[in-house]
Amino acid sequence: MSLPRIAVDAMGGDEGVRVMVEGAALARRRHDKFKFLLVGDQAQIEKALEAHPNMREASEILHCEDVIAGDEKPSKALRRAKTTSMGLAVQAVKEGKAGAAVSAGNTGALMAISKLALRTMPGLDRPALAALLPTLGENDVIMLDLGANRECDTRNLVQFAIMGAAYSRTVTGRERPRVRLLNIGTEETKGTEDIRDAANQLRAATGLALDFEGFVEADKINRGDVDVVVTDGFSGNIALKAIEGAARFVTDLLRNAFTSSLRSKVGFLVSRPATELLRHHLDPNNHNGAVFLGLNGVVVKSHGSANAKGVANAVEVAARLLEDDITNRIASDLGVLDQANFNPVPGIAQAGE
Amino acid sequence: MSLPRIAVDAMGGDEGVRVMVEGAALARRRHDKFKFLLVGDQAQIEKALEAHPNMREASEILHCEDVIAGDEKPSKALRRAKTTSMGLAVQAVKEGKAGAAVSAGNTGALMAISKLALRTMPGLDRPALAALLPTLGENDVIMLDLGANRECDTRNLVQFAIMGAAYSRTVTGRERPRVRLLNIGTEETKGTEDIRDAANQLRAATGLALDFEGFVEADKINRGDVDVVVTDGFSGNIALKAIEGAARFVTDLLRNAFTSSLRSKVGFLVSRPATELLRHHLDPNNHNGAVFLGLNGVVVKSHGSANAKGVANAVEVAARLLEDDITNRIASDLGVLDQANFNPVPGIAQAGE
Fold it and tell me: Which reaction does it catalyse (chains A, B) (predicted)?
């Protein structure tokens, strides 16, 4: 089977071409059937490829010098899409020259460019941005939407649940990921009307390939007993950043505490393997690969400051989503949902499968 | 000057009468002019007071056997208000027999009972729940609203800013606390229309005793460079719980890491002073004292699981808010706001002071 190529925006992100190319090369070791379209300055890419001869064979270079700046407004970035590395990587997906695009550039610009070029898939109202977060359990938890949609209605939330579950199947291997809606309490009466209605619809739509388990509060996201946390873009952005900030806050406190006395310094050195484990678990590079779900094509956002291992994780996410044919999986589940909506009694919806 | 008494719901919370009485006694050491009304089972309170003879002299006991349960619905709790320790503590404030009430019981019930008994203060649309969170700086940060109001409009947010600043002046001693609105970005175009309008109004109302410094993202709440974070109750609840959950997540990881090898265990023991410092800084007992702001009277919520030191902090918050006459401070700032709204040009509003 010939798998579609992955287009890599080699110029986006803070770390430059070398890290993007090295990351793609690392990912290719585990997904060696994939080919790549590297978009960016030809001379720089050629130089970076010298260290990765196998990658050289699997790659085509699309030369381009322009880069979208990290602080560039999405509206301006949209106008420059066709001359920039990010825009051309997404364009390659649109034209079928690649199945997925990976970029470490400006998130807002990537979202705007991807939406305009690839369009929302049929049957879906709005795409969403989904990210991976570490947990105390075996697998990362997926949270969406994280800011693509400031306000979301019932139908959006239900569709996000379906898309998140499709992504989670790829990440966790679970056939029926455990899905919950983010809320300010777990009782059925809590939250806005849209959230409560979405819960009712998800409870009723038993034909979907997911287990809907009700509400989750924001302090339980990382416990490891939920695979997909569904929320509107505003709350999701607040929750994601609050978690990142608090994790950094605690590790900063810890660092200050460990450097506050000689005794602590000695203890810190002796227990370094433990603190390394902590760092490893919290390192965003190990949870890299935010995905724009719901477009006609796969677009993965890598952290702007990701190292080569982080980029490799983002490229692997793209590769695995392509292998699992996520766009068709989502389309099929959206079909089940529409059926369930015509027959809102669970028994009938099941019989109709 | 005779300061008003503090009514303590001695029965609410998980830890029982002994801890509530001990906490009040601890607080009284630093605020020895205060007198107390202890509401609950007389025999249990008498017994708890045996260990605190000074407190005995300063206390009156209001006997009552009924307690609002931790999981009791606010609607049911409201009907039982007049026979329960929580209800009678709040009732004492309403009747002028106490200036403030402190309870470690059911938050939703306390909010409902307090709103009905004390009513929202004149000129204010809605009360709010404000809590203290630890920071890397010298002082705790105040965040509000945390769930009293699921949806909030521009005027609510502006009034929350005024109430939060008044509370912060008591906590930090700053005459002009630094206030920011929680948002999903710091650019002026980010967020909902209500948030952007609230920012414009706060920027224009220069007569207020606060410095409005724009938006803050949820990952910067604990940095120590903002004194008051203003948000609607839904987002505030999400942010608060996300921070609590992430802090617990990191400390759980740390504990796992430290117990994963003998070498780490030894290091952990050697560096115990450092990890104790971390625990001290994150201990909710040290940041205890969520306040319902905007009622005709002061109501402080202590954590349900707070120890005596935690209860003492909550009682001290009540004492200091009474000493600072917070209700009149808020009323006066609301007056400035109304003036500013009639004269929205900052220069004119200032001249009118």
Answer: a fatty acyl-[ACP] + phosphate = an acyl phosphate + holo-[ACP]
**Percent helix, percent strand, percent coil in chain A, to nearest 5:** 50, 15, 35
Pairing mode, strands B290-293 and B298-301: antiparallel
Asked whether the beta carbons of B30 and B105 are under 8 A apart, the reply is: no
Q: What is the mean pLDDT of residues B294-317?
A: 93
User: Which of these, B316, B299, B288, lies nearest to B102 by C-alpha position?
Assistant: B299
The pLDDT of residue A353 is above 70: no
In this predicted structure, the answer to whether residue A344 has a pLDDT above a threshold of 60 is no
Is the Cβ pair B267, A271 closer than 8 Å?
yes
Looking at CA atoms only, how far is residue B52 from chain A in angstroms?
36
Q: How far apart are CA B179 and CA A265, in angstroms?
A: 37
- Number of alpha carbons in the 13 Å side-chain half-sphere of residue A131: 27
Domains for chain A: give ranges and CATH numbers: 1-119+295-305 (3.40.718.10), 125-293 (3.40.718.10)
* Rounded-to-integer distance, Cα A280 and Cα A254, Å: 15
Write the DSSP string, B29-93: HHSTT--EEEEE-HHHHHHHHTT-HHHHHHEEEEE--B---TT--HHHHHHTGGGBHHHHHHHHH
Residues in A closer than 8 angstroms to B193, CB to CB, are none
Report the complex ipTM: 0.86
| A317-348 burial code (b ≥16 CB/10 A, e <16) | bbbbbbeeebbebbbebbebbeebeebeeeee
- Give mean pLDDT, residues B319-327: 92
Is the CB of residue B263 less than 8 Å away from at least one CB of chain A? yes
Chain B 243-262, residues with CB within 8 Å of chain A CB atoms: 243-254, 257-258, 260-261
Residues contacting A170, CB < 8 A, separation 6+: A320, A321, A324, A326
> Residues A91-112: pLDDT tens digits?
999 999 999 999 999 998 999 9
Q: Which residues contact B293 (CB under 8 A, 6 or more apart)?
A: B127, B128, B129, B130, B144, B160, B163, B164, B166, B167, B326, B330
- CA-nearest residue to B245 within chain A is A219
Q: Cβ of A235 and B238 within 8 Å?
A: yes
Residues A294/A266, Cβ–Cβ less than 8 Å: no
